[in-house]
Amino acid sequence: MSLEPESQAPEQAEAAAPQPPARLLLVDDEPGLRTAVQAYLEDEGFQVTTAVDGEDGWAKAQDLLPDLVISDVMMPRLDGYGLLRKLRDDERLGGTPVIFLTAKGMTADRIEGFQAGCDDYIPKPFDPDELVARVRNVVRRQERLLHEAARFADADIGQMAKQITEIRSLLATGGSKKQVAAVKHEFTPREASVLQLVAEGMMNKEIARRLETSIRNVEKYVSRLFTKTGTASRTELVRYALEHGLVE
């Protein structure tokens, strides 16, 4: 009898595959602290990229698309609040969690940080174990949100694809095509791209991957398209777009 372990089914092997380490971007102008925190977080299994100030952090964030940004507040060139505003205004990075790591520990400063949109606030000096615990907490919370969004986006893909196929068939054969007046909509370039991909039968997760943005941003664009076209569902939106020549 062979003592070699049985090979795993592809599904089991995929499920057993380890998750890649969370990608962290650490932004701080203090070299000693930056080096120490990077080493500590890497020892805990995180993948850490460092930046020397907000401008450097912004440039690296655009390339890295990190899972979490840890940033000092008081920095030259661009401070933490300026970096946070840039992240929140960016379509690809708007949903990235941000932890402020700073010597400013007054209640008013913490309130300002949260009002600016940060996800956590850790005053210096800090306990490294507490930092790791908070980082893990924010990363796990983000993973749960993304998992739920992806699960929701995957719902009824087959039914939606069937409906879109039926609409295309009807319009192609003239079965439901109407003579409609030309309409002009002020779509942004990103809204037009999302509309085209919705009309191709893609769901939010697929659109987000294609456009390199977040599922939350795709949902925001689809909602805007409903409002601008006076429709209430993806099927209605596709029918409207095809009838009015808004998509190819």
Mean pLDDT: 79
Indicate the overall shape: elongated
What kind of sheet is the major sheet?
A: 5 strands, parallel
Instruction: Please count the beta strands (DSSP E, at least 2 residues each).
Output: 5
Query: Helical percent range?
Result: 55-70%
Strand content: 5-15%
Task: Calculate Rg over CA atoms.
Answer: 23 Å
Element-by-element helix/strand order: HEHEHEHEHEHHHHHH
Q: What is the SS-derived class?
A: alpha/beta
- If helices are DSSP runs of H or I spanning 4 or more residues, what is the number of helices? 11
Question: Which residues sit in consecutive blocks of at least 5 with pLDDT less than 50?
Answer: 1-16
Distance between the termini: 62 Å
- Largest sheet strand order: 2-1-3-4-5
Task: Describe this entry's structure for a reader.
With 248 residues, this protein is an alpha/beta fold. 56% of the residues lie in helices and 9% in strands. The protein has 11 helices and 5 strands. A 5-stranded parallel β-sheet has the order 2-1-3-4-5, with helices on both faces. Helix 5 links the parallel strand 4 (98-102) and strand 5. The N and C termini lie far apart (62 Å).
